[in-house]
Specification:
- By secondary structure, the chain is mainly β.
- It has one domain.
- A hairpin with a 5-residue loop joins strand 10 and strand 11.
- The radius of gyration is 18 Å and the shape is globular.
Amino acid sequence: MQTKQSVTNSNIVIAAFGLLSMLLPVSQSAQAQDIPSRDSAPVVFQAAGINAASIQSTVDAFRAALGIPNNLNNPGPLSHGRREINWDGGNPNILDTTAPVTPFNVFLNTRGSQFTTPGLGLSQAPPSGGPQGGLAVLFANATYGKTFRTFSPSRLFTPVGSNITNASFFIPGTNGTVPATVRGFGAVFTDVDQQPDGNPNHKASTLIEYLDKDSRILFSSSVPASPGGGNLSFFGIVFGDARIASVRIQAGNVAPGPSDDARHDIVMMDDFIYGEPQLLQGK
């Protein structure tokens, strides 16, 4: 298992850090290197800051590393490009809150991704407003309308009854019948407050694990924090080949419901960006 705790390997690049914390004000400047060979560690892209602009250049660098074009809903398998999900229904004016469901198969056929949770289900919702009141109503917590901010308006993605989301991949256009792997996966998070700092009592709240076809961990990492209401974080990796069969995300240290405070780091998710799904080899 490879675990990213510090950046010391020349094959791993921090594409950018925004305002990670009051103690670590590092400007966005580093650029992604060439994508590594098959046997190398992945290239890491991460950033955190007070708004979308703080992470935008890192997200764009990650997109470029995965490849052009954005293949949208085109059937696969395709040899190049990437897929993206922004939870907005193609229109930032869509403010519906969807009922929690697992598996979440909205993008299974069109973009080759399925999402599950051990909780009640997964939902799309705006932080506040909308016909069903957004996250504030979904979790019966009026503070959520001000706690979270979107990267791409107007909805976020969240598990309900759990803080765990699992992603798996399939060839787009096969309705989940043809398993696939991807070369990279990244996600935007909102309101990640807790990051390890050497104190054994200070643990990361938000984690990502990347697994191969045999459910072995290829790489794992905490997501960079940016303390403060609604601040945004991004974490993604790119391998030299399509070896990621699934991804496990722990968003926050508890399931959504409590108010976000020193004990409860409640975290929501926004854009998911991943490599074009390729046929699973060696089943």
